[in-house]
Amino acid sequence: MHRQEILDHVRNIILATNQGLFPDDVSEFASMTYDLGMDSFHLESMISRLKDEVADIEFTPWYIKASRRGHDTVGSMVDFIDERMVRDVPAELPEGRATHLSNAGPAGLDVEVA
């Protein structure tokens, strides 16, 4: 999954969990709490959906860093997910192993490993 796909998916989840927002409100630089008005319930709902739909990532490190004023941007969340997904994809498989792995992404999204 490329960064732009992650960004689009995060935006869609934010819009779904906070229906008072408009698509133009959810920019990469928008603070989730200050600009978008998300509270802990909204953040937890979003993180839960991201874990289910994108990748089973531990978001505590992002949440700790994001709790500092201005660090809870949409872009910081996207970067965090992007970094974890790259780190979790194996570089190569041992001989004789399956060459097609599922990347715990949205339904139908698979990563081909050469």
UniProtKB/TrEMBL annotation:
<feature type="domain" description="Carrier">
    <location>
        <begin position="4"/>
        <end position="85"/>
    </location>
</feature>
<dbReference type="InterPro" id="IPR036736">
    <property type="entry name" value="ACP-like_sf"/>
</dbReference>
<protein>
    <recommendedName>
        <fullName>Carrier domain-containing protein</fullName>
    </recommendedName>
</protein>
<dbReference type="InterPro" id="IPR009081">
    <property type="entry name" value="PP-bd_ACP"/>
</dbReference>
